[in-house]
Amino acid sequence: MLTVLKIFALAYVWLVLPVLLGRLWELFQKEEHNSCEISSLLGMLTVWAVFFVVARQAMASEWKLSELSGIWGLILLLMTVAAASYLAVQKKLGMLRMVWNVKNVHWIILALVILMAAAIFSVNDKEEHMVEEVLTMYTTDSLYEYSPMNGKAKEELLSIEVEELETQAQSPISAYYSTYVSMTQIYPAGFVRILLPIFLLPFYFCVYAAWGNYLFPTSPKKRYFFQAVVWLLYGTTLVTERTVMFRIFANCWNGETLFFLGVLPIAVLLLLGEKKGIRELEDFKKPYLISEYVVCAAAGQLLCTKGFFFVTFVWGIALVAACIKRWKDGSSITTVEG
């Protein structure tokens, strides 16, 4: 019974809390990205970004995993209170209708099919060591102080092994998973390989549902076809040799997989906005877009060692394009006036 309660608590944190936090983005903007998919995605990115900041502080202060878990549990509680207070003040009771809508039943059915496929066809990828990393931190009550490959402390490792451990600490996604294992005391292998696909595949699903809505806003059939094609393409990695980052069904919890197939597509979608064109230079001064950049960059760094760089690069390209557009518009006006 206690295990069931723990799973329900985890389901709340991974599936419900992001939706609640996504509504807080209304404080920054009212119209753009107000769909259920974008709202929940922004909420998930917010959770990841906050954890990245907390984890960096924890490693700088040499906290134990149990200490980080306690602080993170308190932060999750504060997030819940903040989101619930906002919804109560704004009387957003219609949020429940947004989350559960008869028109979205087909998406729920498709999501369940994807979850079943992941459970049936999931394979043990030899290039993936997330279970070992989480297990090592959990059993030693530490954060990147022991090698998950041989169990040796950092002082006993070769310089190249220490460098690899420090590289892992730059994107502490395994520490993120370890905090939940520490809080619930669920066996790490079961948490990573059984529970995380249930929690994370809806995230991927929302990413491509949001892209489908963006590409085909007036054609439901095209949106269904787009979603089906995406998952069929990712399904081919079960029978072909592909890099780890593209094997959603084998290791959807992998940081690079989450970044390149989740966070980076979201970052691009947020940049495109509702106008479906190059953003104006004034848009980059708006608080909500600046906040979206910060959240995407921090969440990206949690998942991938170069996540911050990739997100910043995408944002920089969009900013340069906006500057060029402003310069061309200004020069054309000058020419006409002359």
**Basic shape:** globular
Q: How many distinct beta strands?
A: 0
Cα separation of the termini: 79 Å
Order of helices and strands: HHHHHHHHHHHHHH
Strand content: under 5%
| Main beta sheet | none
- Which structural class should the secondary elements be placed in? mainly alpha
Please give the radius of gyration in angstroms: 21 Å
Mean of pLDDT: 82
Number of helices: 14
Percent in helix: over 70%
Q: Can you give a write-up of this model?
A:
By secondary structure, this protein is mostly helical. Helices cover 72% and strands 0% of the residues. Helix 1 (2-23) crosses helix 3 (65-90), helix 6 (130-140) crosses helix 8 (173-184) and helix 13 runs antiparallel to helix 14 (307-337). Mean pLDDT is 82; it is low at 95-103 and 331-338.
Offer a few descriptive terms.
338 residues, mainly alpha, 0% strand, globular
What is the topology?
Elements: H1 2-23, H2 36-60, H3 65-90, H4 95-99, H5 105-121, H6 130-140, H7 159-170, H8 173-184, H9 188-215, H10 220-235, H11 248-251, H12 255-272, H13 287-303, H14 307-337
Helix pairs in contact: 1-2, 1-3, 1-9, 2-3, 2-9, 2-13, 3-8, 5-9, 6-8, 6-9, 9-10, 9-12, 12-13, 12-14, 13-14
What's the short story on this structure?
The chain is mainly α.
